[in-house]
Amino acid sequence: MITLVTNYGDIEITLNHSQAPETCKNFLRYCQEGFYSNTLFHRVIDGFMIQGGGYELRDDGFALNMLEKKTHAPIGNEAYNGLKNVKGSVAMARTDAPHSATAQFFINVADNDFLDHTGKTNYGWGYAVFATVTAGIEIVEKIAQLDTCTRFGHEDMPACDVIIEKVIIQPQN
């Protein structure tokens, strides 16, 4: 189990190692490295999802800027694993390229079946679900309902910062 400690409350997620082994290994690596500490949920869309894990706020001496963190190489897309983008599921964010996921992830706040794997084509690959929110879904919903604006060139960004302060990794039994 992983706890995302945010300035809005804790979100506990359980990884599904059996169905998404490489994606879980990748996510856990970032957690163990402390990568997600002080990163933002930088994109929130009520009725859809909240996305984070790739940007931090940093004062560069002149102004506060949102900076993208350096990541490891992209991983293969495991969206064919049978897990669905349903409310409370956690999936890897990516670009239009199917195998481009690195560190960013999103939590579904609705059933989003249009994000599921339908075939091994650019359009059909889908987004790999690798975990489930097991506690704190009310925190996820509260974040999803925040007012948004365009900040630092990003649309759908919360008007108030939503920060993943740290990640706690619970030992597996």
From TrEMBL:
It catalyses: [protein]-peptidylproline (omega=180) = [protein]-peptidylproline (omega=0). It comes from the Bacteria. PANTHER family: PEPTIDYL-PROLYL CIS-TRANS ISOMERASE CYP38, CHLOROPLASTIC. Its EC number is 5.2.1.8. InterPro entries: Cyclophilin-like_dom_sf, Cyclophilin-type_PPIase, Cyclophilin-type_PPIase_CS, Cyclophilin-type_PPIase_dom, E_coli_cyclophilin_A-like. Residues 1-169 form the PPIase cyclophilin-type domain. Signal peptide: none annotated. Pfam families: Pro_isomerase. PPIases accelerate the folding of proteins. It catalyzes the cis-trans isomerization of proline imidic peptide bonds in oligopeptides. The keyword Isomerase applies. The keyword Isomerase applies. This is Peptidyl-prolyl cis-trans isomerase. Belongs to the cyclophilin-type PPIase family. It is an enzyme of class 5 (isomerase). Keywords: Isomerase, Rotamase.
